Amino acid sequence: MRNCRWPGLGSGLVAEEPLIVARGLVKRFGEFTAVDGIDVSVERGEAFGFLGPNGAGKSSTMRMISCVSPPTAGELRILGMDPVRDGVAIRGRLGVCPQLGNLDTDLSVFENLTTYARYFGLSRAEARRRATELLEFVQLADRAKGKVEPLSGGMKQRLTIARALVNDPEIVLLDEPTTGLDPQARHLLWERLYQLKRQGVTLVLTTHYMDEAEQLCDRLVVMDGGRIVAEGSPRELIDRYSTPEVVELRFAGGAEVAVKLDGVGERVDALPDRVLVYARDGDAAVAEVHRRGLSPSSVLVRRSTLEDVFLHLTGRTLVD
């Protein structure tokens, strides 16, 4: 029995078990361990994220989930199947948006979708219907007859997402979906992905943008060095590992002044260009800084973010 989640844009088998289950999952390349024994489960209809810096193991994990890279060790089940034995069947039910674009520049925008649809056995008429519908969804209908090359980066990424949906997938995998895009393009892409999530499409994405993870993910794991260092919803992770507010202080003499801030707030982290004071009341922390006779060149009080969580867990920022 298939339940429609979006007219022509996805449906899935009703199942109690998670769509993705990994236990002790390992991926090695020679002597290098890219993924070091992680446990992950992704439920139907949720948006699940892998958050971490470059080299954390996110993309290696996604390649195993997309059945293009076999696990070295551990257990991995996708849609109740073994990706090593049942890779072809699993790939037919996945939509994949790779980090590096691989659109066919010799074909038109419309043909990129219809040609891809034929790989999944769709009839010519059904492929054209899907392509028309999906180009409307990603707001590229007016570019249907044009070539791919003149499209902006954001347009190409939306076209890649449309292509990933052409086979009516149960899971859509997105590897760094907005890397290199300008803010306007990122927000438009987020809006399209949010619409898919609202219709029950299961999204699995990697990102090193904390705001992207907060916007899109119901749950996420923070990865570092091939391991999972934290798991939960964005709000749960912030509540667990940070404080409600953060004060960013910059001093003319650099971050060396951090030693004079001991006891201001709950924690003080000195970065090369600024000092972060984690506090429940940011304004009270600022008042204490001035009471101690310190004069920062700039002061910013803001709410805690997932980047603060990552800094606390690994000692470095997400973009390092």
UniProtKB/TrEMBL annotation:
GO terms for biological process: response to antibiotic. Keywords: Antibiotic resistance, ATP-binding, Cell membrane, Membrane, Nucleotide-binding, Translocase, Transport. GO terms for molecular function: ATP binding; ATP hydrolysis activity. SUPFAM superfamilies: P-loop containing nucleoside triphosphate hydrolases (SSF52540). The keyword Nucleotide-binding applies. It comes from the Bacteria. It is found in: Cell membrane. Pfam families: ABC_tran. Residues 20-250 form the ABC transporter domain. It is a peripheral membrane protein. InterPro entries: AAA+_ATPase, ABC_transporter-like_ATP-bd, ABC_transporter-like_CS, ABC_transporter_ATP-binding, P-loop_NTPase. Belongs to the ABC transporter superfamily. This is ABC transporter ATP-binding protein. It comes from Herbidospora galbida. The lineage of its organism: Bacteria, Bacillati, Actinomycetota, Actinomycetes, Streptosporangiales.
